[in-house]
Design a protein that fits this description.
Blueprint lengths: L4 H24 L9 H23 L19 E10 L3 E3 L7 E9 L19 E14 L4 E18 L8 E7 L6 E8 L2
Antiparallel strand pairs: 1-2, 1-3, 3-4, 4-5, 6-7
Helix pairs in contact: 1-2
Pfam families: DUF4831
InterPro entries: DUF4831 (IPR032265)
Length: 197
């Protein structure tokens, strides 16, 4: 047993070289104990690779990887171009927009104006009755790291849409109405009617 770190490193390095020599001998067909078939050869090579990897980690260290999901909430009241959505640090992960420890990631939001917003005419202004719901507009979202585009796609954005109303005549005593809303946009998902007879 040795107490010297340098001596231990030397012994580990020699063991790595021995493993590599054994693997090369197997591949050339020059090993003392040659496998009987291809499956046995594969098992032996896999075992040698695992041993080499374990020994090499003593020098290079190990790498642990963890996948996390972060939600960045933005409340757009207008279109914007290349605003900092968040910053990312290799050591700290996601950091605040004003934390200079991270590299900025930019977001752009463009209203696609797919919803026709009716002009408000005082004479035609209808009485606002019923259950209000949102009809979200569509927006083009682009996320970049300043150099390359990481994401681009259309998403519903409530602020670019309009408010509509479910007419009170829908709700009567002869049937039960179930109305389903999208919890993130306030949009109408579906309406179910059940007769009460």
């Amino acid at each position: 047993m040795t107490n010297s770190t340098a001596k231990m490193a030397e012994l580990v390095a020699k063991e790595i070289y021995n493993i590599r020599e054994s693997r090369n001998a197997l591949l050339r067909g020059q090993a003392d104990n040659m496998p009987q078939d291809g499956a046995q050869l594969k098992i032996m090579l896999d075992n040698l690779n695992k041993q080499e990897e374990a020994m090499t980690e003593m020098f290079s260290g190990t790498r642990d990887e963890e996948v996390r999901t972060f939600t960045v909430r933005l409340t757009p009241d207008k279109e914007f171009d290349k605003e900092i959505a968040f910053r990312f640090s290799r050591k700290l992960g996601i950091v605040a927009v004003n934390d200079l420890a991270g590299e900025p990631y930019y977001i752009s939001l463009k209203d696609l104006k797919k919803i026709n917003i009716p002009e408000e005419d005082e004479k035609k202004k209808k009485k606002l009755e019923g259950i209000a719901y949102n009809v979200p507009g569509q927006a083009l979202v682009t996320l970049t790291d300043g150099r390359k585009k990481l994401y681009e796609g259309e998403i519903p954005v409530t602020q670019f849409g309009i408010v509509e109303y479910l007419a009170p005549v829908l709700f009567n005593k002869n049937s039960t109405i179930k109305v389903y809303f999208d919890t993130s946009t306030g949009g109408l998902l579906k309406i179910d009617r059940e007769d009460n007879r």
